[in-house]
Amino acid sequence: MSRILEILAPAINLIPEVEKPIKKILPFRSRAMWTAIVILIYLVASQIPLFGVVSNAGADPFYWLRVILASNRGTIMELGISPTVTAGMVMQLLVGAQILNIDQNDPVQRSLYEGSQKLLGLIIAFFEAVAYVWSGMYGDIEKVGYGNALLIVLQLTFAGIIVILLDDLLSKGHGLGNSAISVFIAINICETIIWKSFSPITYPIPGFEKEQYEGAILNLFHSLFAIDNKFVALQNAFYRSHLPNLASLISTALIFIVVVYFQGFKVDIALKNDRVRGAIQSYPIKLFYTSNMPIILQSALISNLYFFSQILYRNFNGNFIVGLLGKWSIPEAGGSHMVPVGGLVYYLSPPHGMIEVISDPLHTILYVVFILTTCALFSKTWIQVSGSSVKDVAKQLKEQGMGLVGSRDSGLKSHLKRYIPIAATFGGLCIGALSVVADFIGVIGSGTGILLAVNIVYGYFEQFKREKEQGTLTF
């Protein structure tokens, strides 16, 4: 075990944690209840405004990150899952690079590893909170006051502790799924879809006398009653450009169905159990072998590039090098975020609708190549640092006493090598392609968000089905 974790042990022991349940598997009703409580706490926290904020106006510099970080601007959930996710990725990279040597079968080492991840998440939450306040996101530091600035930092840090504890609650087996992080992402995205479908807020639309509802479904009925020409009413409901429309809603449902269909693509490898004579079971290798990780890493990369480009453009918008990196503007129709209109970030951003896809082919080609390449590379790299490579899987199966049917131990590794690298690379490519298609056809939210939500929800469906087959779905 790494000496670093032993040194951190006293500090790790001070971090609160959730005890494991007494029973190995709790009744389904109990787990569903705790999951509902976790979701309720997250939704409430996402609506509680930060105390001490002077100004929250202007373009949101973290708009592009909020989908994958399940955060809500101006609330105590401002940081979202960012500290926890960042801490988890850093720890996995340290283990994958063998800087930290952890034996996951040793309960003491595993406990120290999990505790150090929580400690790192808490430290990241604190420094992110300080950076947010110092950058002027909540108003000029002199207007906010040092007392209120300290209160904002404490609120955000405390919210980080709450997220860590909620994640610990589900990962220890008290709730459904393995992590609250996935629940928060899915809830945030699903909430956006529902809001964009039924939002009662009205906005003025050019060419129409009356204001229109933001919600696509609500606007359909309103248009049919308020507009005499029913053809114009349907055209507006399906294709209006400044607000969510029915075409976007149908596209979202279509992508949902396609992703679920691709989830069924897998290769089953027949394995024998050396400890139980005649026992044979299958080991599935899915097309989406690395699940959501390629698109999450790619989104985090491009979102951070957007963020730094915006900051540079605001302060040095006349600089030639800064202009090459990216030029930004706020849409004429208004909005809480800036959009790229030139430079590198423009060509790495998704085209807005099929008209822009056709009218600017260079933008389209560069964007598609960038997404597909980065997703494939991230997916292939992730299996090396996350313990899911051919070598790691073969070692895990061997420790469990599993072997390839009709072959010796050496045959298992070579057999896995035929499928895992291809599934990782091609699966990442497919994830990127689906994200591109989703952005092109104009889904609600973003292609990345829809893919994340579908994969997470489908994972819960698989867990429900698996527990039902194993007879552990007790109420």
Description:
Helices cover 61% and strands 6% of the residues. With 475 residues, it is mostly helical. It has 3 domains: 1-191, SecY subunit domain (Preprotein translocase SecY subunit, Orthogonal Bundle), CATH 1.10.3370.10; 200-243, no CATH class; 262-475, Preprotein translocase SecY subunit (Orthogonal Bundle). It has a 3-stranded antiparallel β-sheet. Strands 1-2 form a two-stranded antiparallel ribbon. A two-stranded antiparallel sheet has the order 5-6. Strand 1 and strand 2 (212-213) form a beta hairpin. Helix 11 packs across helix 20, helix 17 (390-399) packs antiparallel against helix 18 and helix 19 (420-440) crosses helix 20. The longest helix has 28 residues, at 107-134. Residues 40-74 form the Translocon Sec61/SecY plug domain. One of its GO terms (cellular component) is membrane.
Q: What's this model, at a glance?
A:
The protein has helices at 3-13, 28-45, 66-69, 82-96, 107-134, 141-144, 146-171, 180-198, 216-226, 230-239, 246-263, 293-315, 320-325, 344-347, 354-359, 361-385, 390-399, 409-417, 420-440, 447-470; strands at 202-203, 212-213, 266-273, 280-286, 327-329, 339-342, 402-404.
